[in-house]
Amino acid sequence: MLTKRIIPCLDIKDGRTVKGTNFVNLRDAGDPVALAAMYAEQGADELVFLDITATVDERKTLIELVRNVAHTINIPFTVGGGISSVADVSALLNAGADKISINSSAVRNPDLVNELALEFGSQCVVVAIDTRYVDGEHIVHTHGGRKPTELRTIAWAKEVEERGAGELLLTSMDADGTKAGFAIELTAQISGAANIPVIASGGAGTMDHFVDVFTTGKADAGLAASIFHFREIDIPDLKGYLSGKGVEMRI
């Protein structure tokens, strides 16, 4: 059985780590390089770095910051934000990223998923899906959750897998930052339909929330931010707890 992964997420704005609720009301959470080093030391399985305003500001990801984080850690490192071309991905991989995450650009140009998978391999391509429940439907949102699209979440997840995505990063905007638990039902639906790993994001508040998302939700990885940044839960404690509950972990 594959071990489940614990992934801290660094949401970056103006070079600092920030965290909000439902994608708004951001507050400072510290220096991204120092946090990355701490998580690698604590035994995080991977790290995700999202430049959350790159698309909205119509600029590229902060390459220098990516390079600094990559030099500091020894765990797989996924970078997202403002990526819209093969050249962007090349630059980030050269700066030390192991994988890239695309969202808005994949919605705008779905063929980009195919292009990146062909150029760099599916294992490098994570498609992030920010979803909100609207009028009885799970709807994909772009631009840091600001813009609703016409896309239905489950159908979109299937499409990007067919196009060559190697992994899905599913964020429930309704649950994000609430600490009330992951979107278990939706995660289970997508995990059940997908043949690629699903990273669940949004809503982690307790260790039992991770138990739920790995068992009922069938997720391959659990991603969280504020509970780790503000030391509400430490990764070694979380992994020990999960392991005790029968969840396969790399400890």
Automatic annotation (TrEMBL):
Q: What class of enzyme is it?
A: lyase
> Record's Gene Ontology CC terms?
cytoplasm
* Catalyzed reactions per annotation: 5-[(5-phospho-1-deoxy-D-ribulos-1-ylimino)methylamino]-1-(5-phospho-beta-D-ribosyl)imidazole-4-carboxamide + L-glutamine = D-erythro-1-(imidazol-4-yl)glycerol 3-phosphate + 5-amino-1-(5-phospho-beta-D-ribosyl)imidazole-4-carboxamide + L-glutamate + H(+)
| Listed EC numbers | 4.3.2.10
For this protein, the record's Pfam families field holds: His_biosynth
At the top level of its lineage, which domain of life is listed? Answer: Bacteria
Per UniProt, which keywords does this protein have? Amino-acid biosynthesis, Cytoplasm, Histidine biosynthesis, Lyase
Q: Which CDD domains match?
A: HisF (cd04731)
The primary site where this protein sits is cytoplasm
GO BP of this protein: L-histidine biosynthetic process
> Which pathway is this protein assigned to?
Amino-acid biosynthesis; L-histidine biosynthesis; L-histidine from 5-phospho-alpha-D-ribose 1-diphosphate: step 5/9
Similarity annotation:
Belongs to the HisA/HisF family.
Its annotated function is as follows: IGPS catalyzes the conversion of PRFAR and glutamine to IGP, AICAR and glutamate. The HisF subunit catalyzes the cyclization activity that produces IGP and AICAR from PRFAR using the ammonia provided by the HisH subunit.
Give the multimer and partner information: Heterodimer of HisH and HisF.
Task: Specify the protein name.
Answer: Imidazole glycerol phosphate synthase subunit HisF
Gene behind this chain? Answer: hisF
